[in-house]
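Q: Convert this sequence to structure tokens.
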Amino acid sequence: MNPGDDHSSLVVGHCWVEGPSVLESAYLHNVLIPAVPVPFDAQGKIDASAQERYARWMAQQPIEGVAVWAHTGRGLRLAETERAMVLECWRNSVPAPRLVIAAAGGSPGMADPGQVILSARSMARQAVDLGADAVLVHPPTALRDRPDRDTLVLDYHATIAEVGLPLILFYLYEEAGGVRYGTETLSRLLERPEVVGIKVATLDSVITFEDLASLIEAVAPGKVLLPRQERSSQTGNHGTTPPYGRELPPGGTRKGEVDSDSLFRVFR
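A:
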């Protein structure tokens, strides 16, 4: 298991309002949306039969949708045709009103900021064309060491937002390929109207988690914090984030608790 592996699920809720597939953050609570893997055969190709069987089985489970193309599904390393195969399979298996959330980001190995941003937008545009309901934004790892990082991070998210779907930000610790967004940058991202929430994976940094929760409460109280409890130290892995369940003031976010390595929870 690699440090960046995301064996997690978003636990959210949803509501359909005016406009195509508009997801309101006020309803993001307490339903299960697993981040799904992709089966491959011995030749390294997607096993279409296994993929379809898995999707049919998952569709019978008490889920509210799925998240595809995330780290669990190796989304950034799939070819465009492979991504299409995966999303179409899940869209057919979990039709509306259940959700398909597709992750989007720049292709691995790219260094030029313009190429990274356009690659991420292309992936998000493909998600729209294939019927996704929202986009989970992969951190732009290629941009994190640049002196103009903050400007590029804002441009990156703004360009992805152009495709017209609700966005879920992703704050991932740097050792797993994330970007340590500055307070001003993250505040501006959270204030974007397309952003409905933020997925947070800070490993064992409780202070970072608390700082993020306080920032959301201060600048975007209507947005949802989607925390994950990291793999427990009792399993011999990387450590653990203590459980959270404290309720914030009315109208604010909720800190959540994850009870296994495969769940996100956001409590009302």
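The mean pLDDT is 78.
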